[in-house]
Amino acid sequence: MTLSRRTGRVVEGKLPEGVDLQSFLEDAAVRGGFRRATVLALGAVKGAVFAFFEQGNRRYVPLVRDEELELLNLTGLIGDEGAGPALHAHVTFGDAEGRAFGGHLLPGTVVFGGGYWIEELQAWAAGDCPCGPTPPAATGRSG
Question: Has residue 107 been placed in a domain?
Fold first, then answer.
């Protein structure tokens, strides 16, 4: 599939200490009035909650790391399929031993600091967001 997209407005800033990473980025999209957007972020977190997708069982397996970590990368898409903007993001973290790991971002990742960039996408029609399936448990929303 070939997608043609136009970008629009950009919201960028610092990630405040103590906020939930997923909720903050979804709220920033709402404040910006974005229905579709790309999201990038990096920084540091006080702990991480993310998931591995078990393909055979078609389910997300939650993983928790209760330690200081670097947020090496967050790449995601904001899509609004009627319940408000929802973030589908993949994250890569690094630990004090230099190991990298990651998966699908879940609620509960607490920010220490960092920065984010949200860029509006204007070309998708409703229902066309290539965000992929985001399970209700991953967004904290029902349905």
Answer: yes
Q: Is residue 138 included in any domain, yes or no?
A: no
Report the length, in residues, of the chain.
143
Task: Find the CATH number of the domain harbouring 108.
Answer: 3.30.1330.80
Confidence class of residue 140 from pLDDT cuts 50, 70 and 90? very low
Between 48 and 122, residue with greater pLDDT: 48
The total of structural domains in the chain comes to 1
What does the alpha-carbon distance between residue 81 and residue 126 come to, in Å, rounded to a whole number? 7
In this structure, are strands 59-65 and 36-54 parallel, antiparallel, or unpaired? antiparallel
Residues 49-96 pLDDT 10s:
999 999 999 999 999 999 999 999 999 999 987 777 899 999 999 999
Q: Is residue 25 domain-resident?
A: yes
Instruction: Give a yes or no: residue 130 inside a domain.
Output: no
pLDDT at 129: 52
DSSP for 14-50, written as a single string: EEPTTSBHHHHHHHHHHHHT-SEEEEEEEEEEEEEEE
Distance CA 143, CA 135 (A): 8
